[in-house]
Amino acid sequence: MRFYFAPLEGITLAPFRQTHQAFYKGVDRYYTPFLVANQTLHFKNGELRDVDPALNPGIEVIPQVLTNKAAEFVWAVQTLAGMGYREINFNLGCPFPTVTSRGKGSGFLAFPDRLDAFFEEVFDSLKKWEIESDQKEPDQKEQDQKEPGQKEPDQKERDQGDQKERDQEDQKERDQEDQKEPDQKKAGQTKPAQMRPDKKEPGKEEPGKKEPDNKGLSGLKISVKTRIGWENPEEIKTLLPIYNRYPISELTVHPRVRTELYSGDVHMDLFGYVLENSIHPVCYNGEIYSVEDYELLKEKFPRLDRVMLGRGLVRDPALAEKIRNSIAGKESPEISGGMRYSDAYLEEYLRALFTRYKEIYPDERHIVSKMKELWYYMKVRYPGHEKAYKKMKKAVTREQYEAAAAEILL
Q1: Residue 95 in contact with residue 180, Cβ under 8 Å?
Q2: Based on CB atoms within 10 Å of each CB, which residue in 10, 176, 272, 349 is the most buried?
Q3: pLDDT score at 208
Q4: Where are the domains of the chain?
Q5: Among residues 10, 18, 7, which one has the least CA distance to residue 89?
Q6: What digits encode the pLDDT tens for the residues 148-194?
Q7: What average pLDDT does this structure show over 254-282?
Q8: What pLDDT, on a 0 to 100 scale, did the predictor assign at position 131?
């Protein structure tokens, strides 16, 4: 069984990945929060920093890209390949209105014809690019990795750009806070402007469609993380034939539609449909918060061999390791005389994470905000600490935050 750490915006960044990997075992690969590819054909400084190989040593990292334009995705793949990445993940799962209203993320699922055309252009372009690259001399390849006429920003420019991005991230976190409340399902039900789902009979192919192309790319892998539809779970029966038509290396499925966000039951029957009918390796994602949840999943789908953990792994950073130990029949390992899964060890992990954030983000208030984000997921494990959570909500310094965290973890 392989376990992946899902991409979570604002959370699973390089400092988090490095700290988690140092304290807890069991995760085979980490996916980055999505990088936005747009018409500027430039990633933000913060996005480039997050995928800098120098900040990601010793762990397998898969960059995820968000766009709905084939040319922009091809550019992103070429750029990331130039940094040494051999697999790029395409985001068709993000359910938040700021993304889906632009027809991106799970918003793209509303238009299967456009999605089909997107994949056709992407794989045709990447195959041509690989052929052309193979014909070039090595020194020419190195030159092509740098954009002509683009000078490196000096340190002052980098600092100014990073601070601007941090301010934007802070604003985004405040804007999206309401989306995390239990009634979030009420928000953003509007479909992308001027767009409606294509009306096709589920599972039916259009005449003249080409046969599935299983040749793939020689040096690159394109994987996909998807939901099962926009508003109707049965849409997956239209989407899956599209995925099967192209050389996707792996299909990760969150069995909900976009309008369900993260509420309600997952559609296990339709995940089973994908597992049975996909020609690609299939990875499950969604609602795994405990060893028991995993065991029920595995009992239902015995041949499933890969699982992506997200919110459950933020809530309990040791979850993947606990599942592996359960599979192997092992007891919890000991660390420095104490249990690895103890609250004291969790507190040590959180302190180390704060310190690692400090190496990248100079603004302590920004770091405190990021730590609070983790506690949004972890607090369900520690009920009955309302006063401490109120103190944490008001905290603006490291001392204030850690005092509230220690009160919870006593």
Answers
A1: no
A2: 349
A3: 43
A4: 32-286
A5: 7
A6: 444 444 444 544 555 555 555 555 544 544 444 434 333 334 444 33
A7: 95
A8: 82
DSSP code, position 34: P
CB atoms within 10 A of CB 330: 11
- pLDDT beyond 70 at 309: yes
pLDDT at 172: 52
Q: Would you state the pLDDT for residue 393?
A: 96
CA dist 31 and 6 (Å) reads 6
Residue 312's pLDDT is what? 97
pLDDT tens column, 317-334: 999 999 999 998 865 554
pLDDT tens string 67-76: 999 999 999 9
Give me the long-range contacts of 120-128 (CB less than 8 A, separation at least 24).
120/246, 121/70, 121/71, 121/74, 122/70, 122/73, 122/74, 122/77, 122/222, 123/213, 123/217, 123/222, 123/246, 123/247, 125/70, 125/71, 125/74, 126/74, 126/77, 126/217, 126/220, 126/222, 127/217
Instruction: State residue 120 phi and psi, 5-degree precision.
Output: -60, -45
Phi, psi torsion values for 141, nearest 5 degrees: -60, -45
As beta bridge partners, residue 29 has: 4
- CATH number for the segment(s) 32-286: 3.20.20
Contact criterion met (CB below 8 Å) for 300 and 268: yes
Return the residue matching tokens 């595995």. Answer: 298
Give the pair of three-digit tokens for residue 22.
Answer: 């140092």
Provide the pairing of β-strand 338-339 with 334-335. Answer: antiparallel
> What are the DSSP E strand ranges found in 70-169?
87-92
**Shortest CA distance to 87 belongs to which of 55, 63, 51?**
63
Q: Is the dihedral of CA 168, 174, 178, 179 positive or negative?
A: positive
Q: Positive or negative CA dihedral for 133, 139, 145, 150?
A: negative
Residue 149 has what pLDDT?
A: 41
Residue 112 main-chain phi, psi, to 5 deg: -60, -35
Is residue 144 very low, low, confident or very high in pLDDT (cuts 50, 70, 90)?
low
192: left (phi over 0), alpha (psi -120 to 50) or beta: beta
CA gap 388, 406 in Å, rounded: 9
Provide the total of helices (H) and of strands (E) in the chain, helices listed first: 16, 12
